[in-house]
Amino acid sequence: MSARRWMCLALVAMPLVFALVGPLLARSAPEGRQVPFGPSQWSPFGTDRLGRDVLAAALTGGRTFLVVAALTVLGAYAVGFLIGVAAAAAPRVWLDELLMRPMDVLLCLPSLLIIMVAALRTRGSAVAIACAIGIALVAPIARFVRMASRGVVHGPVMDALRMQGEGRAYRYGNYAARQMIRPIAADVGVRFTAAVYFLASANFLGLGFDTTSTDWAVSVAANKDALTIAPWSVALPAGLIVLLVVGINLLCDDLLSDPHTVAARAAVSGGRRE
Predict the structure, then answer these.
(1) Hey, what domains does the chain have and what are their CATH numbers?
(2) Which of 44, 92, 200, 237 is 20 to 30 A from 118 in CA distance terms?
(3) R_g over Cα of the chain
């Protein structure tokens, strides 16, 4: 395994460990409140505005954040994928137009506006915000899937299978899956980054989780005024969000890169060293 891949795995692993194992590790933290924005008895990172240990708050604030983001992306991709494939395989132009024109209208609406309206109408319901983020992601997902699958559905291999009278649906699906897996998987990483961005933005603006929550984005918003006197109360949760987003994108680029391109790049690099 290359050093680049190890680095990408390390970037992703750190926030995931915080989110998955963190609540167990935080059980040993002191339950009582300490002096706000002061030293902590449990870790060297100090305390936040409510007197909670910064490290303990970071250990307990990632699970809900990541679960909501992951479920939102999966739900949005399920809907967007079906719409995109149906539009690409539509036998009539009017059916393609009927499916994709509403997506174009949805693309014109600012994503944060959709999230803010949902948050204000439901008084900050996490479920409503997650649904709003999913709605904002459906349109670009559907457009991308339609573009990625159109050349496959109407390509020469599919035409050959039809001319041979191939009636087994799994043969069509198997071929289409092998052709589309790389761009679709890469796009999932991009959409997860977008979901994290929207969710963090909503929480930062006070539209998402409770403002006393230990959620990473809420912690950044709640403690931002004390950045100069208690920098870790902002830097630690913000750093975990950045590590997750950057790590996932780098890992997707590394895992899903074209093998022929990687080999050619390695050959050119080896030739230059010689």
Answers:
(1) 3-264 (1.10.3720.10)
(2) 237
(3) 23
Q: DSSP assignment, residue 122? A: T
Per-residue pLDDT, 174? 61
The residue type found at 227 is L
* For range 181-199, the mean pLDDT: 82
| 229-265: burial string, b at 16+ Cβ within 10 Å, e else | ebebbbbbbbbbbebbbebbbbbbebebeeeeeeeee
Q: Could you tell me which of 19, 26, 49 has the C-alpha nearest to residue 36?
A: 49
Instruction: Note whether 36 and 57 are within 8 A (CB).
Output: no
The pLDDT of residue 138 is 92
Q: What percent of the chain is modeled with pLDDT above 90?
A: 5
Neighbours of 58 (CB within 10 A): 26
The CA distances from residue 115 to 50, 136, 192, in Å, are 28, 8, 16
Tens of pLDDT, residues 130-162: 888 889 899 999 988 888 877 766 655 555 655
What's the rounded Cα separation, in Å, for the pair 204 and 51?
20
